[in-house]
Amino acid sequence: MGIYLVTGSSGDIGSDICEKILENESNSILGLDIKPSRINNTRYKHIELDLGNLKEIEKVDWEKFNISTVIHTAGVYKSKLIEEYDLSSITYTVNVNVISIVVIIQQLLNKSTNTKLENIIMISSTAEKLGSRDPVYSLSKSAIVGVLKSFEKTLNCRINIVSPGLIDTKMSSENQTIQRKQYHVNNTLAKRMGKIEDVTNLVMFLLSDESSYIWGENIYINGGML
């Protein structure tokens, strides 16, 4: 069995996914994040790097890792209007949210003879469908759908997207006012914010054999917001 690669592995969703994967004692994980990890497990290796700086991705010794599954949870949400962005912030957001996964897959295929990709899961957002007051975030999450459609044509492995709505994470707490949160909640059928485990349970299903006939899908998980 190959190693799981998890980007954004120190985030709320990324950490929870890693902990669930490690519950199976045969699994090992390589985590990538700009922040340190809270996970203390000998089967978890953490590399601190900035996915917004694509050169750092190229410096990883990918040949050392037999990666079979990639889970891209890394994301930046600056919650800015278009006039509040500068060029460097636009570039950084797009790099973290979408370009980084393209570069990672490229590096795995070009530099690691051990790599045999079996499953790729990418986290997008309901914003790719509805748009967002933050257009750079929305464009980056929409681009992930284009990456999926292209990877499907060239990579012989299972690839799916999970697109959450408003989830109760640290990132949403830092970037959403109480009023905006209530607005989103009012526009769901569930009348609540999503929980971290709502998303991670779906990811774990997509990692399991029970979902082996689900290929090329973008699965929305937003309490009926759409």
Automatic annotation (TrEMBL):
Protein name (record): SDR family oxidoreductase
Q: Which InterPro entries does the entry link to?
A: NAD(P)-bd_dom_sf, SDR_fam
Protein family membership: Belongs to the short-chain dehydrogenases/reductases (SDR) family.
Keyword list (alphabetical) reads:
Oxidoreductase
- Origin superkingdom: Bacteria
Per its UniProt record, what Pfam families does this chain match?
adh_short_C2
According to its UniProt entry, this protein's organism is: Lactococcus lactis subsp. lactis NCDO 2118
Gene Ontology molecular functions: oxidoreductase activity
